[in-house]
């Protein structure tokens, strides 16, 4: 189990807007934001659920090749994530569907976020 993940992005405001829209169908929202006045440097956003931030991003140079997969409770959440992410400006990297080469119930959707990150929502439950 991952406690949290953090990465940098080239446009904090655009990333903030994107993730708030794209991750809402998964029940992920802003939990806390740490501004430059608090860090003495870049701003950071901590998104999560149940009061726990586990998805962090901040201002900086993005990394190449990052893949982040977020758990979805249902296949409908995967579909809603994909639609929300595309509406928020993502590029398609694999529409919602089964990926049986991983396992028979692997249902995922993949998008490329504004920073070039391969973002996925996945449900491992049958139907």
Q: What's the total helix number? A: 3
Helix-residue proportion: 10-25%
Q: What is the CATH superfamily classification?
A: 2,3-Dihydroxybiphenyl 1,2-Dioxygenase, domain 1
Order of helices and strands: EHEHEEEHEEEE
Separation of the first and last Cα atoms: 23 Å
Largest sheet: 5 strands, mixed
Please state roughly what percent of the residues sit in beta strands, choosing from under 5%, 5-15%, 15-25%, 25-35%, 35-45% or over 45%. 35-45%
The number of domains is 1
Keywords:
four-stranded mixed β-sheet, alpha+beta, 3 helices, 9 strands, globular, 127 residues, 2,3-Dihydroxybiphenyl 1,2-Dioxygenase, domain 1, five-stranded mixed β-sheet
In short:
The chain is α+β, with helices and mostly antiparallel strands and 127 residues long. It is built from three helices and nine strands; from the N terminus they run E-H-E-H-E-E-E-H-E-E-E-E.
């Amino acid at each position: 189990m991952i406690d949290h993940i953090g990465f940098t992005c080239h446009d904090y405001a655009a990333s903030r807007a994107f993730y708030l829209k794209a991750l809402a169908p998964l029940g992920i929202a802003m939990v806390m934001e740490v501004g430059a006045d608090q860090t003495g440097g870049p701003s950071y956003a901590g998104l999560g659920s149940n009061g726990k931030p586990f998805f962090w991003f901040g201002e900086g140079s993005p990394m190449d090749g990052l893949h982040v997969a977020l758990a979805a409770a249902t296949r409908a959440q995967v579909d809603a994530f994909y639609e929300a992410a595309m509406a928020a400006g993502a590029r398609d990297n694999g529409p919602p569907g089964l990926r049986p080469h991983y396992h028979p119930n692997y249902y995922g959707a993949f998008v490329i976020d504004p920073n070039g990150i391969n973002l996925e929502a996945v449900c491992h439950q049958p139907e």
